[in-house]
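Tip: read the tokens left to right.
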């Protein structure tokens, strides 16, 4: 921030970047293990395919791809980052897995990673910092201007339930079936600056809004905004933050394709965005998607009615095929469309695994095998 103002760094339209927060798991008991700092010790964290870095607690690790123009390049980066971590983890007898929550870990046993920001988060939010040991996929899409980023931040908010249902991968917490498809987002929602961007006209409006927050002592950095979708001025992107970390690189890639094609669709069609009206139903719609997944019913305040999310997703995915920037994106959209047509997401796969094995430790092991590609998952 210079002179109390964020400068938006323009980037090439529809450029993609993906971040995955991953679970570090003990082979001995399938619980989360405190290993992140040791795991990264001696490792060059900036590699050909992106970055590998610490997250809020020692039981998490985050990988970030390079900024790429195509979904195919994102897929290659994610495979490369996964392979580096898998090799590194094997040396320390650790498993690595996706999924939005660990099914049975105890948050008091978590340890905050060293670092000024992590310490500040713990100081400010208390036990919520350790409870924030949940795992998400963040998708960045490039924007040429701050004004476009603010418009997209609000336009994408309408589609938060769609991202949630397609990526849901956290049905279990504290050793129990939560009856949610995505229980992870309940942990995120506990933070006071979670939710959605308010109705703002442009980038200058965002700067004025943030200056107010800063003067009031509410926020000091954009990282303090735990919004579902937020601008990222230093990257020149809009960042979608509601996806659970998928169980496979394939699903993570398909979600990136969905984001890229959806942004292309929105920029071409320029639908009416009424953040004030949608703000009235945003929490309800997100709850519906978290709780029921594809079976959710979402409210449309402009039409004055409700829509079956399953039907809305099917119609949207069909339309997005015409807005796919390239063949790679089209193939991944078709893959996601086929999966959604069967009402399939990672939460369903995890529940089936528990029904078959009746032991959450076995489910964790299967999820780890799934992530490294040794067990087929919803192909």
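Filled-in amino acids:
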């Amino acid at each position: 921030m210079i002179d109390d103002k964020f400068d938006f760094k323009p980037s090439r339209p529809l450029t993609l970047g993906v971040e995955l927060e991953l679970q570090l798991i003990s082979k001995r008991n399938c619980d989360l293990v405190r290993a992140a700092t040791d795991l990264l010790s001696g490792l060059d964290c900036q590699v050909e395919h992106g970055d590998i870095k610490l997250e809020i607690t020692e039981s998490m690790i985050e990988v970030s791809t390079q900024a790429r123009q195509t979904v195919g390049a994102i897929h290659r980066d994610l495979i490369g980052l996964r392979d580096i971590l898998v090799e590194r983890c094997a040396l320390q007898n650790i498993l690595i897995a996706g999924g939005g929550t660990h099914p049975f870990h105890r948050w008091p046993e978590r340890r905050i990673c060293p670092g000024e920001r992590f310490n500040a988060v713990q100081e400010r939010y208390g036990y919520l910092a350790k409870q924030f040991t949940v795992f998400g996929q963040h998708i960045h899409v490039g924007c040429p201007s701050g004004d476009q980023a603010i418009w997209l931040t609000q336009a994408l908010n309408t589609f938060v339930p769609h991202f949630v249902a397609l990526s849901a991968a956290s049905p279990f917490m504290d050793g129990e079936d939560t009856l949610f498809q995505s229980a992870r987002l309940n942990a995120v929602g506990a933070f006071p600056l979670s939710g959605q961007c308010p109705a703002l006209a442009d980038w200058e409006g965002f700067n004025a809004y943030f200056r107010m927050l800063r003067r009031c002592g509410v926020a000091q950095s954009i990282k303090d905004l735990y919004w579902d979708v937020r601008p990222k001025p230093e990257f020149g992107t809009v960042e979608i933050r509601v996806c659970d970390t998928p169980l496979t690189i394939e699903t993570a890639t398909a979600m990136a394709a969905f984001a890229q094609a959806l942004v292309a669709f929105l920029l071409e069609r320029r639908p009416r965005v009424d953040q004030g009206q949608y703000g009235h139903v945003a929490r309800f719609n997100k709850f519906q998607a978290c709780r029921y997944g594809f079976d959710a019913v979402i409210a449309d305040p402009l039409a004055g009615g409700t829509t079956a999310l399953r039907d809305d997703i099917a119609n949207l995915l069909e339309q997005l095929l015409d807005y796919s920037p390239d063949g790679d994106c089209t193939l991944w959209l078709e893959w996601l469309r086929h999966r959604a047509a069967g009402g399939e997401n990672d939460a369903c796969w995890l529940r089936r695994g528990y029904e078959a094995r009746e032991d959450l430790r076995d489910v964790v092991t299967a999820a780890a095998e799934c992530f490294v590609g040794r067990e087929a998952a919803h192909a």
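DSSP finds 15 helices and 14 strands in the chain. The longest helix spans residues 71-91.
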